């Protein structure tokens, strides 16, 4: 039984599972289907939340919207993307299973904090039977918060209310690092996504890994210190 003396928020894309080598325009397509207009994409979506990306597309194309419009576009995104996700080549990041198991053995609660909507995030986790590794009842998804920094803040407050111990975020983007540091949350950055080791290093995370296989001993030491406080 986990002692719940610490909780780790794991990002999904680029952290737990590899990103397929495809160009994703699903968010744009969902807004186009809703508005029945051909629109312009708003640039990089790396590290953003699903609902935030949809809002950005509306604003970039100077289209007025209400919160309900964003939720309807999110529903379209969820519906249309699940089968596409199944057809893409997702793989577990090297060393992730070993890292998750080690955290569980040390009494750490593994949770999810991702920009994916709950429907998309849980679906990706289930692709590789990872759901049993996480407390999905205490996980946080990109359905309602426009910015990752606000999602991290919400998650931290929720865990504080529950009396959990130290909180750590693990992610692969500069936005992950910035969002954690803005909320005084410890951050482990892993260079397994699209942001390079050098870019992540410039953000000064608490720990920076090449991946969980090459640098498992560093991660192990970090978790040992986390759980021995």
Structure notes:
With about 230 residues, the protein is an alpha/beta fold. The chain is about 45% helix and about 10% strand. The chain has 9 helices and 5 strands. It is globular.
Major β-sheet profile: 5 strands, parallel
Q: Given the structure, what is the number of helices?
A: 9
**If classified by CATH, what would the architecture of the largest domain be?**
3-Layer(aba) Sandwich
Identify the overall geometry: globular
Strand ordering within the main sheet: 2-1-3-4-5
Query: Between the first and last Cα atoms, what is the distance in angstroms?
Result: 19 Å
Strand content: 5-15%
Give the structural class: alpha/beta
Q: Would you state the CATH class of the largest domain?
A: Alpha Beta
The tally of domains stands at 2
Query: SSE order, as H and E?
Result: EHHHHEHHEHEHEH
**CATH evolutionary superfamily of the largest domain:** HAD superfamily/HAD-like
- Uncertain parts: none
Number of beta strands: 5
Radius of gyration computed on alpha carbons: 17 Å
SSE blueprint and pairings:
Blueprint: E1 6-10, H1 26-35, H2 50-60, H3 67-87, H4 96-105, E2 109-112, H5 118-127, H6 148-161, E3 166-171, H7 174-182, E4 186-190, H8 197-202, E5 207-209, H9 216-228
Parallel strand pairs: 1-2, 1-3, 3-4, 4-5
List keywords for this structure.
9 helices; 5-stranded parallel sheet; 229 residues; alpha/beta; 5 strands; Rossmann fold; globular
Tell me briefly what this model is:
With 229 residues, this protein is of the alpha/beta class. Helices cover 45% and strands 10% of the residues.
